Amino acid sequence: MCRGSTYDVRMAQTNGRTSRRDIYLKLRQMVLTLELAPGAALSENELAASLGVSRTPVRESLILLAQEGLVQVFPKIGSFVSRVDPAQVADAQFLREAVELASLDSLPDRLDTAVVAELRDNLARQRRADLGLEEFFALDEAFHHGLMRLGGHGDVWKTVAAAKGHLDRARRLGLHENVSPAVFAAQHHEIFDAVVGGDLPLARTAMRTHLRAVFDDIERIRAHSPELFAADASTVPVRRNVVVWE
Amino acid sequence: MCRGSTYDVRMAQTNGRTSRRDIYLKLRQMVLTLELAPGAALSENELAASLGVSRTPVRESLILLAQEGLVQVFPKIGSFVSRVDPAQVADAQFLREAVELASLDSLPDRLDTAVVAELRDNLARQRRADLGLEEFFALDEAFHHGLMRLGGHGDVWKTVAAAKGHLDRARRLGLHENVSPAVFAAQHHEIFDAVVGGDLPLARTAMRTHLRAVFDDIERIRAHSPELFAADASTVPVRRNVVVWE
DNA sequence: CGACAGATGCTTGTATACAAGTACTTCGCG
DNA sequence: CGCGAAGTACTTGTATACAAGCATCTGTCG
User: Cα–Cα distances in Å, from A74 out to A64, B9, B61, B114?
Assistant: First the structure.
């Protein structure tokens, strides 16, 4: 009697009210898009008031973001958006390169035609001239995720995505000043053609070149404007009134 | 005025009282060591009472564990230790293999002698005959982490470790019935010798063989006793009184 | 004018009360 | 005896109150 019953996930979401999941996703998006700048002070009370909820869901969201490394919480002092840590950027670069290259190695002989079509459409959209920055990033994310799905490791992308928050923010810093999504789009094309053409070595080198280009772009922007990068990970940022001051 | 000041992490820990960090680590350890069996029901109230704290820190710990995939929380229904998900086990296997092999590729010419000595000592301890299961797992963890540190990617191990909870539990299931840490210890030796000997290809093949052996061990135990593995990820386990019943 | 001490306002951490909903139990009825 | 429906005990989600501590501002004294 009473076997396990299936649980409908939608019921937890369609409450209508903004739940913790919404708050977490919203805050995460704001951090990744630099709408919440690195080093900015986050007050649980202020966020709760501005979102129209109590401290509890805000606090729980901040705890999750802290575990991802996107937020730092100092007890009795304050919570802050993490400064972009070059070490974490390099770690994320290493991780994604290792995983994405290994995924290429495990591509099956016959590719999922639906995913291939999806990628082809994705690349077409990347070619559009009137492409906004966030739109490009979304397409970029979907493209790399799609390649992982071709290798049968679509779920592993979640782990990579969660670990590359610092890298994503660094990329946005770079592309803010130095628009060049067209170059990356062309590299995406090269990778895709090699994959569908079955040329594994070429796909590997193209992917490696692409990811390294992204990383070099970040290093360049770091030398250009280092104030948003973290010097020491355990350094408390300046307080709010001083932030207003600047 | 008022530049950023350094924050002493120890202050947040030496409160004496069991804080959320302690509770989180304790629960996580209990889940990984199967002291909390897959499928077991977790009540925030019961855990709070048994740990002598309120629901708040317990709840926040469960939220973190849920993000790691070790716990499933169903609103208004209950929280449960996740059943070992074969898909997540395979994902973790793919991830760690990709990362650890890539780390071998990035080994420097001159290895950190301190880490090498540490690894040598680690291997000596693995040889001891009176080795407990959890002791072996701790040494295994430290060994692989040490290899990553040699490649300069020690921090990446945190990401891998966080993602391989399901794989670790599957390993413990396997080694509970089928003691063979000696085989794995010998493989560790082989990897280590190839690394210090500078034989990169041999190190790669030895590592791959080792990780695949671990994975095959898991597949074997899954065929042997599948009741602790998840059939469908969104299936609610049986309720508490029924758990007492069985 | 300078420096030290207390007051104040902010922060996060924890405990508790309430809200909403599920699942099982039990009682009443046919 | 079978079955249905109200009731009860439990769950998690949220809001709120209190506790403890750091940083700054301010008042006072030398």
Answer: 14, 9, 17, 33
Strand C close to A54 by CB, under 7 A: no
Fill in the amino acid letter for B147: L
Q: Could you tell me the distance in Å between the CA of residue A1 and the C1' of nucleotide D2?
A: 18
What does A87-114 look like in DSSP terms, one character per residue?
HHHHHHHHHHHHHHHHHHHT--SS--HH
The reply to whether A20 Cβ lies less than 7 angstroms from strand C is no
**What is residue B82's predicted lDDT score, i.e. its pLDDT?**
94
At A223 the pLDDT is 79
B44-70 residue pLDDT tens: 999 999 999 999 999 999 999 999 999
**Strand C: positions under 7 A of a protein C-beta atom:** 10-17, 20-25
What pLDDT was estimated at residue B5?
A: 52
Determine the straight-line distance between the first and last CA of chain B, rounded to whole angstroms.
Answer: 66
Which residues from B are below 8 Å from A when comparing CB atoms?
1-7, 9, 11-12, 60, 63-64, 67, 74-75, 77, 87-88, 91, 94-95, 97-99, 101-103, 106, 153, 155-156, 159, 163, 232, 234-239, 242
Provide the pLDDT for residue A219: 80
Kindly state the tokens that stand for B182.
């000696």
CB pairs under 8 A between A and B: 104
Q: Give the pLDDT score at A30.
A: 97
Nearest CA to B74 out of B57, B62, B56 is that of: B62
User: Which residues belong to CATH 1.10.10.10 in chain B?
Assistant: 10-83+233-245
Coil/strand/helix, residue B179: coil
pLDDT of residue A4: 44
CATH match for A86-226 among 1.10.3720.10, 3.40.50.2000, 1.20.120.530, 1.10.8.100 = 1.20.120.530
Higher pLDDT, A153 or B183: A153
- Region B16-31: what's the mean pLDDT? 91
Nearest protein residue to nucleotide C20 (CA to C1' distance) is B76
Low-confidence residues in chain A, pLDDT < 50: 1-4, 10-14, 240-246
Domain with CATH 1.20.120.530 in chain A: 86-226
